[in-house]
Design a protein that fits this description.
Blueprint (H helix, E strand, L loop, with lengths): L2 E6 L7 H14 L4 E5 L6 H5 L9 H5 L10 E3 L2 E4 L10 H9 L7 E5 L6 H7 L4 E6 L3 H16 L5 E8 L1 H5 L6 H8 L2 E7 L2 H6 L13 H11 L11
Length: 240
């Protein structure tokens, strides 16, 4: 049975979807089969994974019986993607749970990429999730919204959530322009699972390039997060 994780953020612009794909690639590199279900109607996961040209069906088509479950999955380099429909109309939490059950035996991990905010999209993305990941950048606005998102996920029945602090400039933290790691943890009240540095190569990867490569500054962070998700003990340490 797949382990199901919703990846959320209170505010947009924190790099959540790029982070989701990076973690999926790291999990795949560790030998896992990974499916990402895009629950954001803006739909960008397919672009980052490189399956846009093949898209025909989305998870609404599976729910409403317009296609067989396997036909809505588009794979590239070991990662499966199911795209989001343009509307949530007629889709509820029970249907999302039933949707995920179609893929339980085929994948080790199912990641639900939630839209930013705490609305209907987060509710649907959280419906089938065992656990959650909350993504924040180390600034006051994003930290406050991440705390709110984590509380909403708990109300929705999501199990333990973990925090990823993304797009971190150590120099800005040292100079006091961004919050330090301890302050982010204390403010969100969510246990940390990883810190990811700002990485221009990953940002450019979102324009159609690669997101996960050994020479990238973020590579070790993605890899360590994936290992922790798999249950390995990897000591948490700040960026070099």
């Amino acid at each position: 049975m797949a382990k199901k994780i919703v990846v959320a953020s209170g505010k947009g612009g924190v790099g959540k979807t790029t982070l989701t794909v990076g973690i999926a690639k790291a999990l795949t590199a560790l030998g896992n089969r990974v499916l990402i279900i895009d629950c954001d109607r803006l739909r960008s996961v397919d672009l980052l994974v490189g399956v846009t040209e093949n898209l025909v069906y989305d998870f609404g088509d599976v729910i409403f019986g317009n296609c067989e479950p396997e036909k809505a999955v588009y794979e590239n380099k070991g990662i499966g993607v199911i795209s989001c429909p343009v509307s949530y109309e007629g889709i509820d939490s029970e249907k999302m749970k039933a949707l995920s059950e179609h893929y339980d035996c085929d994948y080790n991990f199912i990641l639900f990429d939630a839209p930013a905010g705490i609305g209907r999209g987060l509710e649907l993305a959280s419906a089938a999730a065992d656990n959650g990941i909350v993504v924040s950048t180390p600034d006051l606005v994003c930290v406050r919204s991440a705390c709110t998102a984590a509380k909403e996920m708990e109300k929705m029945g999501v199990g333990e959530s973990r925090l990823i602090i993304n797009r971190v400039y150590k120099k800005d933290i040292t100079k006091g322009r961004l919050l330090n790691v301890d302050k982010v943890i204390d403010s969100t009240m969510v246990q940390l699972i990883g810190v990811v540095p700002e990485d221009e190569k990953v940002r450019l990867g979102s324009m159609g390039g690669e997101i996960y490569k050994k020479r990238y500054d973020s590579y070790a962070a993605f890899t360590n997060i994936a290992k922790r998700i798999c249950g390995q003990y990897i000591a948490l340490s700040f960026l070099k």
